[in-house]
Design a protein that fits this description.
This protein is mostly helical. It is 64% helix and 0% strand. It has six helices and no strands. It starts with 17 loop residues before the first helix and ends in a 17-residue tail after the last helix.
Length: 176
């Protein structure tokens, strides 16, 4: 993974992904909530402390969306100093192992966050500041974790399938 930005060609640049669009919206909401709270505190000497619940929930959503976008563009954090020194077969195995562990982790999060959300719904837990159902905030964790696992699988399949128009040999020549 490099720290350089890929070259931008206006003709070949793909449109924004759903993760990028939703991240922008969520970030905008966080900014509006925080700015509104600052203005209220400045002009009225009162704080909208309850808005912190929304901001925290939105930050969790933003974390999942950012993770998904990072995996989609192969820009996630990894330490590959030693992996680069491995032979190609072991390098492919390390890549597969990384995928399997990451997908398993987010599947684990989806499962247990789903159980948490169900318990909050079932026991009618409410948030401390606003008194709204707590599951309103946590329902996004399992949903986005499942979406992230799907993104990982789709990205993995796209990366390891031959490009359109090429044959199975991968050399671009059509079979005679």
């Amino acid at each position: 993974m490099t720290t350089e930005s890929p070259p931008h060609d206006a003709e070949t640049q793909a449109p924004y992904t759903i993760e990028q669009i939703l991240s922008g919206i969520v970030m905008g909401l966080i900014v509006l909530i925080t700015f509104g709270n600052v203005l209220a505190r400045y002009f009225t000497s009162q704080s909208f402390a309850a808005t912190e619940e929304f901001s925290i929930a939105l930050l969790i959503v933003l974390s999942f969306l950012g993770s998904s976008a990072a995996f989609a563009f192969d820009r996630h954090i990894r330490v590959d100093y030693f992996v680069r020194k491995l032979p190609p077969g072991l390098r492919a195995f390390a890549d597969w192992l990384s995928f399997a562990v990451t997908a398993s982790l987010f599947a684990f999060i989806a499962f247990y966050a789903g159980k948490l959300t169900w318990d909050q719904y079932r026991f009618e837990e409410t948030s401390p500041a606003l008194g709204v159902p707590q599951w309103w905030y946590t329902v996004w964790m399992p949903v986005l974790a499942v979406a992230l696992v799907l993104r990982l699988v789709i990205t993995r399949l796209r990366r390891h399938s031959p490009p359109p128009g090429s044959d199975a040999r991968g050399d671009g020549r059509a079979a005679q």
